[in-house]
Amino acid sequence: MIHTQVDINLTRRSTMGPLDSLDWLSRFTEETPGDPQSDGPSRQVPNACWSKATPFKAPNPTLALWSAELAAQLNLLKGQPEVLAGGVLVDGMVPYAQRYGGHQFGNWAGQLGDGRAITLGEVRTSKGAQELQLKGAGHTPYSRFADGKAVLRSSVREFLCSEAMHHLGVPTTRALSLCTTGESVMRDVLYNGNKELEQGAVVCRVAQSFIRFGSFQIHTSTGDEATLRALVDHTIKHHFPDHSVDSDDGVVAWASEVAETTALMIAHWMRVGFVHGVMNTDNMSIHGLTIDYGPYGWLEDYNPGWTPNTTDASHRRYRYGQQPQIGAWNLARWLESLIPLMQEPRRLEGVLDHYGEVFNQHHNAMWAAKLGLGLWRDEDQDLVVQLNSALQIIETDMTIFFRTLASIEAPNVSLLSDAFYQPIGEAEAPLQAWLVAWWGRVDGTPDRATMMASNPKYVLRNWMAQLAIDEAEKGDFTLCEDLHSLLMNPYDEQPEQEERWFQRRPEWARNRVGCSMLSCSS
Length: 522
Ligand code: AMP
Ligand code: MG
Known about the structure:
There is one protein chain. The chain has helices spanning 27-31, 68-74, 81-84, 152-168, 213-221, 225-239, 248-272, 323-336, 349-370, 380-390, 398-405, 428-441, 448-454, 462-473, 478-486, 495-501; strands spanning 24-25, 50-52, 62-66, 96-98, 101-104, 107-111, 117-125, 128-135, 150-151, 174-188, 195-207, 274-275, 297-298. By secondary structure, the chain is of the alpha+beta class. The protein folds into three domains: 19-214, no CATH class; 243-368, no CATH class; 373-446, no CATH class. The longest helix has 25 residues, at 248-272. The protein is globular, with a radius of gyration of 24 Å. The mean pLDDT is 96. Adenosine monophosphate binds at residues 112-116, 142-143, 146-149, 278, 282-283, 292, 294, 520, 522.
């Protein structure tokens, strides 16, 4: 008989392996109603949440960009472009395109769905299940008149920006890989009749799920309560397990959580100067993740009226300063889609009020952090209002202004001169007055550490992405990789990078397509 104290480790060994070594799940297709037909032409697919769809086989799939950090979380070894571009399926994958609807630019658009996205499946990870989805892997029943492909330009933009957002601390879907396909795709970048062949690409993106507000809306809009309930039950079971939707109280509690994560996401967008560009309800994640990177942009000149999306140029519905209101509008449309679950639908109105309150709390906390104020006080509102109007008198670079503010040793506007695109002129007096008021508020000792952690030094400025795209289109991904690594530490000083990337927008980028002008063309 021996008496020893021996520990036995029963956790499964998690060595890195190829895609077929991952623990694949297909909960969505098992638990929600699907289309009886697989693939096939673009069409309406009533009473379904998905259609099986086969990714196309690219002629020459090549791995161009890779997120090693995300791959490590998935226990995935680098490689397998033939799978990550869609042409080869491994055991466990059940590829499908999701059906959803949405309000586009304020109008109900009916069925939309994954027209250029195909989910491969979910994989179990130590941080919960993650869905892997290919963007640009070819036609699905939801592709309408388009081809389901994506071009290199928009794929680089999605890869770099979603990874940059993650490292900025903004809730977002992520990108695992970018493969070029070796195929040319015809596109009209500005929808003005100038078509050109562009290189095709496929991004593999990753999120807890790609369920959107519009995923629910489509069923309510067609009076299909059974499918709505199946989708809600699936969503609650796996993604909101602390909730139950058996009562009005339960639905309101769940919806309130969705309102909270949505408010938090948008407060983060405002903090870092991100403009989504297409906040249609089909582009609103149920998890409050930034999703569907299309004609997004980053504020350089601090102009709340700015949108990068040329498709929205006349109304500027999705301009920077209006994003919080649009979040509420979108949430209202989603709440309407929950009416069939409610005995007393009026109770959903409280969720909208809650969104407003939560957004304001986050927004105030964000300003307190950006300005190093410590705890927010009600009278700080005046300080924020004055700053917002002063910053609009002349073109002022948002990123440089706030980052520099965190380090100045005296309330002197000349210390911020790098942030201005023009001679300071008439902005000098109001900005100087604001600086003195701010300095007084913080007793000359702003909370600099919090400011540094809230005001990034490096963001994916529109012209930076465009420079990387120009090189990538020539087959050189070095700049993409450099930016990917720069933006993994956006709050760090990285002095060796300053001269190149901590810079105001260069003049050449002011009116260049891809920098100041973007469309939904992808
Ligand atoms: P978005 O504005 O990018 O969110 O797209 C709106 C809708 O158009 C979604 O249903 C997309 O799947 C679809 N879509 C956009 N581009 C393409 C494309 N190249 N091929 C097929 N469908 C597309
Ligand atoms: Mg979309």
